[in-house]
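User: I'm preparing a small set of examples for a lab meeting where we compare how different chains pack in three dimensions. I only have the primary sequence for this one, and I'd like the structure in token form so I can line it up with the others. Please keep the answer compact; I'll paste it straight into my notes.
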Amino acid sequence: MKLLIDAQLPRRLAHELASAGHDTIHAFDLPLGNRTSDDELMALALRESRVMVTKDADFVASFWLRRLPPKLLLISTGNIGNDSLWSLFAANLPAIEAAMDKNHFVEMSRTSLLVHA
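Assistant: Understood. Below is the structure token output for the 117-residue chain.
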């Protein structure tokens, strides 16, 4: 998968996903870093066919109103440590890959993977 990780998620997640074979960019690694606007992130996701990975409800609203970003993975775990977040991703990565391959909006909580659209 090609992923774009939003600023409120740890850089470590991007590194771990890249190590697992995914083409991953973290918002901090963009020229404007964490000052990159949501619109710029969505444009990058659209231009490069990347899944936007975020905890930010603004992306959810934009997805439902404008279908931007075109693919969205919402992380709805609440506060979670980096080790626990990566463990959750690692345990669900095959299911996430399959869900994102066929759908546009997937949500991952601590206990489930939910396909919205």
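A couple of notes for your slides: The helical segments are 11-19, 38-47, 57-66, 82-102. The first strand starts at residue 2 and ends at 5.

User: Perfect, thanks.
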